């Protein structure tokens, strides 16, 4: 079954935020996790979250959030992808790509020239996905996440 990709309205779907927070805790190590600050971040006007939701199956299964991407406007010309994740048992179904495309599309609706992000180079699936959608490595930042974990700073420029 295909997931529905939608923008989160924190006032209308607080339960979706709770599901995202649970996923964030499960997927990312503590020092990389935004789970403690999601509510605060989403109250900011320069921040948004798009999530993928699977509907009830024919067998009457529960609706579930299977992935999310968080973005923010860093300046009038630059946006940032703060987080992207898909639930482990739902990976390789195209949801990560669909979420990232939706976030990029959202950035295109503003007069943004560049989308940037940081990613641990050892996160091969994520780096591969970012490359696939046209992101390039700007530089390697040593000790970005912790003393032994670096990050690629990556960017995607809009030509138009
Ligand atoms: C990165 C992530 C979001 C990808 O989600 P996904 O739904 O599995 O990805 P998709 O099915 O949409 O795949 C799209 C592309 O991603 C890349 N990709 C996905 N899984 C991959 C894997 N296991 N190995 C290599 N590349 C992979 C490929 O380029 C793929 O394109 P292709 O199918 O044409 O080869 C997911 O692996 C994840 O949540 N990882 C843990 C969290 C994380 O690392 N987040 C990024 C840092 S914030």
TrEMBL record:
GO terms for molecular function: acyltransferase activity, transferring groups other than amino-acyl groups. Residues 3-159 form the N-acetyltransferase domain. Pfam families: Acetyltransf_1 (PF00583). InterPro entries: Acyl_CoA_acyltransferase (IPR016181), GNAT_dom (IPR000182). CDD domains: NAT_SF. PANTHER family: ACYL-COA N-ACYLTRANSFERASES (NAT) SUPERFAMILY PROTEIN (PTHR47542:SF2). This is N-acetyltransferase domain-containing protein. It comes from Asparagus officinalis.
